[in-house]
Amino acid sequence: MRAVFAYDPRAMLRPVSLLTAACALALPASALAQTATNRELAIIHYERGRGLYAEGRYRQAVFELETAHSLDPSGTNLLLNLGTVHERLGNIDAALLSYERHLAASTDPADRARTQRVIARLRGARVELAEMSRRRGRADGVFWASMGASIACLALGTTMFLTADGDPGTAPVAFTVGGGSLALLATVLYFAREAPPRQTLFVGASFAPGAATLGVAGAF
């Protein structure tokens, strides 16, 4: 399994060619200082993410790692870390997105091959989990309206039968049959449809020297 949490922002500072070095020297001093500051903040959030991951607090770790990557988009290994944590959370789609973004930025053949194997595995897992997680039974507004109308009709029809003097006529029969039909409709509406996915929401706040961040993440 791939090592978790490998991020070395110092490696991003090494020019890979004379052209890269020349471009770096051509940047204004303020831009270079801002880049260095962002990387320093990225390291702070990355280290927090590592600590949270070690404590099993995966959702908070995701927040810190996403903040680190937003500060240092060149730190593509942060995407690997995000993919790993999302996978531990069971967020297969989010894990796939992180690994695919890393793959798009990677140029190392061995790293690309490893990442492609992870992506293939997760795509297979997503299919299997989708088959396992299909849950029947959607109790939404339509279901409850049908069920409520059914109960009301059955109650009214029964009451009319019990309180009628002599021939009750066709009205009680109509209400009783209608109530039974609505009950059948409510049953079909419930079992013929999949239940909606569970909703989760996480709010995280983080503070670093000279900066503060607030984030909201969720799965709907």
Describe how the helices and strands are arranged:
Elements (H helix, E strand, L loop, with lengths): L17 H9 L2 H26 L3 H14 L5 H13 L2 H14 L3 H25 L7 H23 L7 H21 L8 E9 L2 E9 L1
Antiparallel strand pairs: 1-2
Helix pairs in contact: 2-3, 3-4, 4-5, 5-6, 7-8
Summary of the model, kept short:
With 220 residues, this protein is mainly α.
Q: Can you put this structure into words, describing what you see?
A:
This protein is mainly alpha-helical and 220 residues long. It has two domains: 9-134, Tetratricopeptide repeat domain (Serine Threonine Protein Phosphatase 5, Tetratricopeptide repeat, Alpha Horseshoe), CATH 1.25.40; 141-191. 66% of the residues lie in helices and 8% in strands. It has helices at 18-26, 29-54, 58-71, 77-89, 92-105, 109-133, 141-163, 171-191; strands at residues 200-208, 211-219. A two-stranded antiparallel ribbon has the order 1-2. α7 runs antiparallel to α8. It is elongated, with a radius of gyration of 29 Å.
